[in-house]
Structures are given as structure tokens and as C-alpha cells.
Amino acid sequence: MTAIYLIRHGQASFGKADYDQLSDKGMEQSRLLGKSWRAMSKPDKIYSGDLIRHGQTLEHFLMGYQGEGASVTLHSGFNEFDHVDLLSCYDPKWKDFTQMTDLIGKRPDANKIFQQEFACALDRWIGGEKDQDYKETWEQFKKRCVSALHDVIKQEITARKSSNNTLKSMKIDDSINHYANTICIFTSGGTISAIIQYILGLTDEKTLVVSQQTRNTSVTKILSSGSHLSLDYLNNYSHLTSAGSHWITFR
User: Fold this and answer.
1) So what's the pLDDT on residue 169?
2) Whole-prediction pTM value?
3) pLDDT at 147
């Protein structure tokens, strides 16, 4: 049995010139998660999407963890969907994303306005009637996320078979593990939701609800036994709750 932890990135920099950067709060959220991980099983393997916010979350997680680091494999399959593309296809004014976020950011209800716009953009994308407009359709995105997870599992199954064969040929006690029992994957909320949809058979509408409730640096644990997958827990952010409610953010 392998435990796979899907870790959402820390708070990014909404309203800034480059969204794909952790905010100061996002960095500290990641360190808080690392500190809390000292009481958990050491990661045997670490995978990460290759977005900047994924790498920064991992970097600050390791600062907080202060333990022996596992090898890190970048995997673009765990990247988030292109939110700028979604917004631009919904309304051309969003093609200048920096200007739009700057304008909206000056308003007291900035977050509410953005969420309304983003919700409409998501509905258009998921609806599937305008698939030709997008760089990556909703169906393609979901397939990519699930394929990335199966890629990790396939690698682990291959490693286990190779390890077992080696142990048998050398007559070594097979209780010695030469493969991963604990895998951490640093990724994004949309990716996590797509994987949960696959495991639980959720509708697109319920998948959106999961995505909208996923907190920054929250942890979702799935269990893999061969090709069988099950959900152990979803959206755990107790490391933030214990540090104070002001650390809990959605985006």
C-alpha cells in the first residue's frame, strides 16, 4: 500500500504582475506545513508540477520540515489549467490579465468581482460547447491530471517489481523496502479536484465544489494498492488551523 499526498500550493500573488509567485503568506503557509510534517512519515519520493508556485511551495515546505529531503521529480502533468486562457476566452478584456487585476484590485469588493468573473469563465469552459476556443479543454485537462497520477503509480509498481526481483535473487529479507511507501505531490486545486472526481466518480458540478473549497497548502491523501485507488481524506489544513485562522486562505 502506498500513501500519495496531494499538496496544494501556498497562496499565490493575485493582483500582482506575476500571479505565479507565492505571496509572503503563501511562503509561511508552506513552512507551517513542513513543520507539521515532522510528525508524519518521511516522504520517500516527491513529485511537483513545474509552475513557479509549485516549486516555491516545495522549497518552503522543506525549510519547515528540516529533514532529509527525498529526490524531486518535476511532472508538468500536475500543473493547473491556464486560468488566463479561460478568462480571455470568456471575455477578451482579460487578455491583458495584469491590467485587469490591477483595475479590479483597487476596488473594495475585488475578490468578489474576480470570483464572479472566474465562475462564469469556468462554466463556459466546462460546458464544452466552445472547446475550439481553448488551448486545453476541460476533458483534456482531466485526462492529463489522471494520466499524471497513473504515471506515478506505474513507476512505483515497476520499482516494486524490480526491487522484489532483486531481493529474491540476493536472498535478502523482503521486509526491507527499496520502494516508496509515502509519495508527496505538489500541485494545484484544479488538478486535485480532477483526480478526486476520477476516484469518487463525481459530476463536473460537484468537482467544482471540491475545487472551490480547497485551501492553500491543504493535503489530500489517497491510497494506492496496485491499480486500485481510494480516498483517505480530503482538504486537510489542520496545520493552518492550529497556527491561527488568519493563515487559512482559498487563493
Assistant:
1) 56
2) 0.89
3) 98
CA nearest neighbour of 15 among 114, 120, 149, 129: 114
DSSP-derived pairing of the beta strands 219-225 and 2-8: antiparallel
Residue range 8-26: average pLDDT?
Answer: 83
Helix-helix angle 110-127:204-213, to 10 degrees:
150
Average pLDDT over the chain reads 89
136, 128 contact by CB (below 8 A): no
Model confidence band, residue 112 (pLDDT cutoffs 50, 70, 90): confident
Whole-number pLDDT of residue 16: 57
Give, in degrees to the nearest 5, the angle at Cα 108 between 103 and 109. 85
Ordered structural domains, the chain, with CATH: 2-79+142-247 (3.40.50.1240), 82-135 (no CATH)
Alpha carbons 186 and 202: distance in angstroms, whole number: 23
